[in-house]
Amino acid sequence: MSSPKNNYNNLVKPARNTPATTSKMLAGVGGEDKILDQTLRPQKWEEYIGQESIKKNLKILLEAAKERGEPPEHLLFYGPAGLGKTTLAYLIAKELNVQMKVTSGPAIERVGDLASILTNLTPKDILFIDEAHRLNKMIEEVLYPAMESGSLDIIIGKGPSARTIQLDLPPFTLIAATTRIAMLSSPLRSRFSGGTFRLDFYNDDEIKRIALRSAKILNADINGPAAMEIAKRSRFTPRIANHLLKRCRDYAQVHKKDLIDLESVAQTFELLGVDEKGLSSYDRRILESLIDKFGGGPVGLQTLSSAVAEEEATIEEVCEPYLIQLGFIERTPRGRLATPHAYKHLGKNPPQNTLI
Ligand code: ADE
């Protein structure tokens, strides 16, 4: 029987059917969790918890750009989903008091889409491209001169009568975000002259502080131990902490409890099928499949994906980073390998010849 377990994929799954029209792209993608993200999103630097080194670097970069009266140079943020790449971009726009236009790699299908976005920017705007690893090659090639010299080279017509026109663009800052930096072509990567920043997983204490801040915004009473328990099951990820907090709030409300405490949090997690390490039934299914069907691996991503009926990109971008962070899975040249820690977590005996 499949139970109504928590599926983080809904929270952080790579978008597959992004609208193609420019107006929709600029409006951004919808969904309950996007709205939730926006309500809880820090509005000031002081409210943004964690990622201290990135914040320090960005503040210098922004201060210097403001003093010169220029837009900052292009920036690239990478790291697992839900760690706050978009939030950082919004904070930068706010700090500079400029508009931010939001789009994503898969939404820019044609050169014309990009041309329309770029030519509609106002001077000093920020263009935020999420999922930048999914930009197609043709679009990337138009982006290079736009980033480097602020010009747009467009080919009009075909064959012998084709000609190139060059449009000057308003000065702008591109902020790109990706969960898969290795998939960006190196010419694109090298054009982020302002810097490339890797967002790290948060620690439990930071996530606890984020949960307490979010609870305040949501008008929910929560005590310290309950907030810490949410932190421990949040996969070191603020977006998941906020999601779990909301579910705990629902549970407490329905059970007429004024305070979210350890007991109601534990009951909520039981209901959601989130275990003490924050693994969902989907994560456990991956581990179980790896161990029970493939003797612990190594097994290729494609095979694993078929065995668990989950998209490769979801396994790679959503489930694996955390399983790797926990030391439950290793990526080897021959495929995915379950570690003894994974066996232990599932209450299974690791094979004799593995080292703990
Ligand atoms: N909500 C999501 N990410 C956050 C962060 N880094 N700090 C505070 N609140 C957040």
Could you characterize the architecture of this molecule?
With 356 residues, this protein is an alpha/beta fold. Helix content is 47%, strand content 13%. It contains 16 helices and eleven strands. The longest helix has 17 residues, at 52-68. The relative contact order is 0.12. The site of adenine has 11 residues, from α9.
Describe the structure in brief.
This protein has 356 residues and is α/β, with parallel strands linked by helices.
Write the layout of secondary structure elements.
Elements: H1 9-12, H2 22-27, H3 32-40, H4 52-68, E1 75-78, H5 85-96, E2 100-104, H6 111-119, E3 126-130, H7 137-149, E4 151-156, E5 163-168, E6 173-178, H8 186-189, E7 195-198, H9 204-217, E8 221-222, H10 224-232, H11 238-254, E9 259-260, H12 262-272, H13 281-293, H14 301-308, H15 312-325, E10 329-332, E11 335-338, H16 340-345
The chain binds adenine.
Structural class: alpha/beta
Give the proportion of residues in helices: 40-55%
Number of strands: 11
What small molecules does this complex bind? Answer: adenine
Basic shape: globular
Strand order of the main beta sheet, please? 2-3-6-1-7
| The CATH top-level class label of the largest domain | Alpha Beta
Question: What fraction of residues sit in β-strands?
Answer: 5-15%
Termini Cα gap? 34 Å
List unreliable stretches of 5+ residues.
1-5, 13-30
